[in-house]
Amino acid sequence: TPIEGAIMKGQGVVPGVPDLAIISGGKPYFLELKAIGGRLSDAQEQAIDALRAAGATVAVAYGLNEALAQLEAWQVLRGKAT
C-alpha cells in the first residue's frame, strides 16, 4: 500500500533491491525471486545493474525450482534441495 511504501522509504529501504542477500565465503550474492512469467521492474533492473557493477553476483530466478537450483549452484545451501 502507499502507506507501507512511505514507511519503508522512511526506513531507508531502496526500491528494486533483490529479495535475498547472502554473504557466503566473504562474497555477496543477491537473488531476485519472480513468479513464473513475471518480469523485472525498472527499479529492479537498475538495482541489479548497480550490484553487478559493484562486484556482487546477482541472479533472477523464476519459480521455486529455479531459485533452489541457483542457490545450489552458488553452494550456499546446506544439504540438497531436491
Describe this structure in words.
The chain has a three-stranded mixed β-sheet with strand order 1-2-3, with helices on both faces. It contains three helices and three strands, in the order αββαβα. The chain is of the alpha+beta class. It has helices at residues 2-10, 42-53, 64-73; strands at residues 20-24, 27-34, 57-62. The mean pLDDT is 92. It is globular.
Produce the secondary structure layout.
Blueprint: H1 2-10, E1 20-24, E2 27-34, H2 42-53, E3 57-62, H3 64-73
Parallel strand pairs: 2-3
Antiparallel strand pairs: 1-2
Provide the structure class. Answer: alpha+beta
Q: Helix count, per DSSP?
A: 3
Contiguous uncertain segments of 5+ residues: none
Oligomer: single chain
What is the 3D form? globular
Terminal CA distance: 36 Å
Strand content: 15-25%
For the largest beta-sheet, the strand count, sense and barrel status come to: 3 strands, mixed
SSE series? HEEHEH
Query: Which whole number gives the mean pLDDT?
Result: 92
Using only CA atoms, what is the Rg? 14 Å
- Helical content stands at 25-40%
Tell how many strands the DSSP assignment holds: 3
Main-sheet strand order equals 1-2-3
